[in-house]
Every structure is written in structure tokens, then in C-alpha cells.
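lol so apparently i was supposed to do this last week
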Amino acid sequence: QATLPAPAAPADSPGSVVTMSDRTGLPSRVPYLIIGSGFAGMAAARAIRASDPLSKVLMIGDEPYPPYLRPPLSKELWRRKDDRVKAMLSPLGDMRRNSWLFVEPDSFFIEPRRLHLADTGGVSLWKGRRVIALDIADKRVTLDSGDRIEYGKCLLATGGRPRTLPVFDAAAAQSPEVASRTAYFRNIDDFQSLRNKANQAKSVIVIGGGFLGCELAVSLTEVAKKTGLEVHQVFKESGTLAHVLPPHLSEHTSKFIAQSGVAQYPGERVTSVDWDSAAGQVKVGLSSGRSLSADLCLVAVGIEANTQLAESAGLEIDPGDGGFLVNAELEARADLYAAGDACSYYDVLLGRRRVEHVNHAEESGAVAGRNMASDPADPDRKRSTYQHQSSFWCNLANTLAWDAVGLVDSRLETQSFFAMPPLASDDGAAGSDTAEDYQYPGVVFYLKAGRVVGILLWNLPDEIFQDKKAFAPSRLNLARKVLAERQLADPAALQALAREFDVY
Ligand code: NAD
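anyway here it is w/ nicotinamide-adenine-dinucleotide bound
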């Protein structure tokens, strides 16, 4: 009778040796440690396993869930029925049928207590725990439980947390009512809490005109359809998404959001926050002198990288954008890497950057993982440089959806090309646009020193072009190619490039 060969002894592979603590029965030394259980951490774990097949990886995260996609929390989930949302948010059971939110079900992960027993290795997820200190010299971390774990290679994939506004912090410290009615938004628990509170509220003020402020303001109008919730949006810029979009598209986006039923207050900052006990509402004073009152406030004014470990570790932080400083190989120090929102990396094409989007988390996590598992003696396990130009997308409606690659920053010079005749110029000069005009596809080039450094594809799906060769690149890959070529682009060249994207 044929017998299968026994798996290679784990002791043969340095990546598979785990030491357990006699006292706690939990790992006290692991070859691969990942701090953070978001998309960057998960992508790294998978890449380590792919390069070093018998490896044992320990991932520590402070959330009670296995890794999941955050983007649907501000968009799709608000358009689903209650029972669908419940199924989507459960990491148990037949996940592939119920949810595309989670990357893997809970059952995929090995219990930390059993990691040393996994003959062919695997990924263990220690949930609900925070790493509070990192000692680089001794290659050791300390958890909030007091446990200490030594590592061979470590990844910082700690992500970011919502920025707070001092005026709200001060009011919340004074008033428990303000504290309980001020919401921030980042994770599944925030989604559930906001949904419950919004269902009971009569009015909500969204503060912020960025991605989250815009997406959630529009998503909250779904609640408004059922309950009559009043949705207000306050932002300091003159238009929504003004930090990303050229003025004509920012203006169009604002019009769309207003037409969805959101009352907007552009050019306003919050100057005071008080509890109005007579009305039972939060009163928000604005820089123009007017004030708004509402049952609920949602503060969406950006995130800051979770770099608290830098202090104990003596790590360098990007003085401009925050984030652990890493090189193009995503290495902060020997055997220590960082990826995702939490890192400021050297982009060999576009210079130093910190990027806060899921595609970057996935791709940078994968490179960090490969580099952690690299082996100079093995040509199949070479170190690589993070060169992927990550993309991101915004989808406020079927006719207001876009993808972008590269430096998409409205402070740069932009040139827009639309299927319709030009409606308004990129320098913000008045145009004759109507809400319908920007339903047409378009492309926006972001320029630095005459070269294209960013591309935004407006209402242009990333599909293979229909009327060209079968293996033509997707539009996003074409955009990546244009950036990589670094050609000087005059207006005629840009017009020709726009045609390559099938805008016309
Ligand atoms: P953001 O950076 O997109 O926008 C921040 C907004 O807050 C801007 O309007 C800014 O002017 C405003 N702001 C900053 N400081 C302020 C202050 N002191 N007072 C008043 N306003 C202030 O960040 P976000 O919208 O909070 O999103 C959070 C994170 O989630 C980001 O990392 C974002 O990239 C990500 N996200 C991305 C998408 C997407 O790509 N579609 C969607 C949702 C969230």
C-alpha cells in the first residue's frame, strides 16, 4: 500500500520554528511577526507563506475580526437590506456564500496556542490585542497583556486612526452627551454604531469634505429615505473632494451630493461645540458666525498613521506626512518592515509618499512579506522593490465613479479631457456645466514639471477595451504605463493620450 511521504520536518526550516511560553502556553518566539491585521498585514502573511511554504506567521491585531475590506463600510453596505448586512458582517460559517468583506473565515487562522503544532505551518491571528512596545535591539515586542514575543522578522502594518478635532475633544471632555453623539469612522464597529445612531436620529452633521465625508453623507441619505434624517455636511474647502479633484469636478461632485439631499456648508470650519440641553442636541458654531444643531455629529477629517510604537523603538517618522520611514524595499531597520497606511515609503518613480488606500495596503504588504521571507541563497526568494503604482476609486453613483493612479493632488497642474466639449477649465474659470455634463467619460492628467504624475479616469471602467486587441491592457494598467514612461507631455500629446484611454 502506497503511503504519502511525511512532510519535511519543520525544524529544518528556520521560518517554521516557534517557541512556546511554559507559563502562558502562547508563542514566546516566532520567525515572522506581523503587527496589525488589516489588508497590509494579511497580504504580507500570504506572501511569506508563498515564499517560505512551511513558515509560521503570527499576526496580532486589536480588532475582534479577521482581516476585512474597509471600503464597503462607507459605500455598498448602506445600500443593502438588514439581513444581508448581518450576513456580510459575520466571519463565521460559509463565508464565500455570505460575504466578500472578509479575506478568510475565522477558521482559516491557527489558534496562537497551536501554532507550534502546525506541521506545514500557517498563519495564526491573535485578535483583540495591542502591541505596546517594540525593542529593536532584542527583536522583541510587548503586548498590552504583558506577554512578550521575540521575532525573527517583524512587519509594522498598524494602519491609521481617525484624526480628531480639538474643538470636539474639548466639548466631549466637558459633556458626556456631546461625547456619545460624536462619531468617528474607521472599522466595522464604527459602521454598526453609526448605522444604529443614524436610524434613531432626526439630524446629523458630517464634518469633512474628503472621501469619507462625501461617501458617508451620500450613504446617510439612504437612511433619510426611510426616516427623514436631515443630513448636513460642513467642510473647509469651497467644494467636495477639493484636495483631489480639479475645481470643475469638485464643483460637480458638490452639486451631485447636494442633489442627493445633503445640505452643504462649504468654506466653513467648526469653531465651537456645545451641548444644547433644552433642544437635546449638539450645537456646532461655524467660522462664518452661523450655527447648526443636530442629534449626531460625524467627524471625518482624515486619518493619522498609527506610529505610537516609534517612541519605544526609536524609529524615524516622516516629519511631513507621518508614517514609519522606510526605503523602497519597505525596510525600516534590519529585520523590521512597514507597509500600508502606516508607512512613508520611497517611491522610486514619484518620490517619498504615504498612501492611504486599500490597493496600496495589499501590494505593499505583499512586497514587505516577500522581502521578510527572502533568502540570499535562494534565487526564487529574492528581495524586491515596491514599484507598484496603486490605484484607488470613488463611487458616489453609477454616473459619478472614478479610479485614479499616482499623485492625484489638486495642488498640481491638471488637464482634463472629456467626451463632451470642454465645459470648464482646470484653473477653475467658470464653465457652463450642468449636472448631466460630467456623466460623460473623461480623463484628468496631473502634471509636475511637464510630466504626467497622476491620472484620474472619470466614469471610465477599468475594463479591457472592447474594440481593440483581446489582450489590451486595462485602463488602470495603461495609466501605470504612462506614469512609468515619464515622457514630457505638451497639450497635443495629452490630447493624443486621452484618446488612448477611449475617452472619445
Ligand atoms: P480625507 O483625507 O479624504 O479628507 C479629509 C477632509 O477633512 C478634507 O476635507 C479636509 O479638508 C478635512 N479636514 C482636515 N483637517 C480639518 C480640520 N482641522 N477642520 C476641518 N476639516 C478638516 O480623509 P477622510 O475623508 O477622513 O477619509 C479617511 C481615510 O479613509 C483616508 O485615508 C481616505 O483615503 C480613506 N477613504 C478612502 C476612500 C476612497 O478611496 N474612496 C473612501 C473612504 C475613505
